[in-house]
Amino acid sequence: MTKSLALAICVCLAALPVRSTSGACKSVEANSAETTERLTSVARTLIAHAPGDRNIAVRTESQIVLAEGRAAVGPAETGGALAAKQAAVAVAMRNAVEKVVGVYVAANSLTKNYQLLKDEILTRADGFVVLKEIVRTEREGNIVRVVIRAEVSTRPLAERLKALRLTRAFRVFVQTPDSVSAAEVAGSFTDAGFPVVENKADADVIVRVSPRFTTTAKTPLKTAAGEMTMHSVRADVKLTATRAETGETIATFAANDTAAHIALASAQTESATGALTSILPLLTNAVLTLPAQVSEPVEIVVSGITGASDAAALAEAMNIAVPGVQKMTRRNYANGRAVYEADILAAATPLLSRALETAPALKRYRLRVTKESRSRVVVVSEQ
Fold first, then answer.
1. Distance between CA 43 and CA 346 in Å, rounded?
2. Among candidate residues 249, 245, 171, the one with its CA nearest the CA of residue 210
3. I need a labelling partner for 80 at 20 to 30 A (CA). Which of 24, 72, 133, 236 fits?
4. Nearest-angstrom CA–CA distance, 176 and 280
5. Is 157 helix (H, G, I), strand (E, B) or coil?
6. Do 304 and 284 sit in the same domain of this protein?
């Protein structure tokens, strides 16, 4: 049953005569309050059980990362190289989870609470990560080294970190027009554990509700109390969260719903509330999985590369070895010069040059930084 059909049935019911015990046909007699409540109640019931349209953006709840793991080869009776490879994969999967943990936990909290993270998160990494691919397996003397591509489920990880009080409690400011209940939106975030503030200047996250109302039908009703109009209203609601500090859009969701009421304002409020019911959980989840640290792009220019395959291998190695790297992309390679674009957590950017020169995974490239700024680092490979 569509909602327009539901409303039509409601109107027909209101217009039907009622047969008395004597068999005579007579009009409905009721006072104004009873009539309004009865019609509104029927409309609400029929419309509530009719499917409304939904246009809901689905936000990803996982992150693909590259990670490295190493393990020593034991004696043949304990599995030898095969057992070492399995152990290295397990280490790599823990490292993948730890890499994502670094996004949600501030650096100082990460250091202070590392033992708690190790006991509650890293030793239970299987619950948060799925192995997608073993990219590479290498034997370095008595050590097996693997590089894996893993998918880390961000929502359960963020929820567990929040339960341990390790994530940042983002302060939320809710901005709504008069036709939408701010209390309902605020309540959704309060229930999820976020403090809701009254002053926009105090907020970390700003949530905006933008409704657009369309009156789809005005149905005249004749009652004992007089003539009335049943308003059928469609609300198209957009729900957006942005970072207060940067203006960056965190997530945007949209949905629509329909409601009917004798009072136009009530029909608008009810239709907007119905639409919000669908998308509020999605937005609270988006804020729940919001990184505690902001990332920023850094261009890395490396000269002295011996070939395109070497340039690709260096990108992979930097992705694994450099702290705070969320993504490493090779933009181009020509004449021994490779240009990369790295998305790095802001707190880790000052550590970039040192990591390039000293990280064990980059040792064979013998990288030397010749020039650096916050947005660009120039490097020479002396391999």
1. 53
2. 249
3. 133
4. 13
5. helix
6. no
